[in-house]
Amino acid sequence: MKKLIAWAEDYLKVCTWKDMALLKFCLVSLGVLIGLQIPKKRKKPAAWTAGVIFLCSYAAVMGKFISVILRRCEDAQEEEFS
Prior knowledge:
- This protein is mainly alpha-helical.
- The chain has helices at 2-14, 17-36, 43-81.
- The protein folds into 2 domains: 1-37; 40-82.
- The relative contact order is 0.05.
């Protein structure tokens, strides 16, 4: 497992935003394919679970993104006054 994580970290170091976008499209497509296979009586719990996971992961991603934006704005203001 440690090797797999190390390989993933090495891969992320060479990825561009385009590579990450392709990876996300791939994962979304896989999720849709899996979702199509869920029996009708189990779709509601699966939808709730997916919704909660989405909201938690989205909040984490956007939190980091917003912190990057704020840091860059602060850096730009500091350079302006220097």
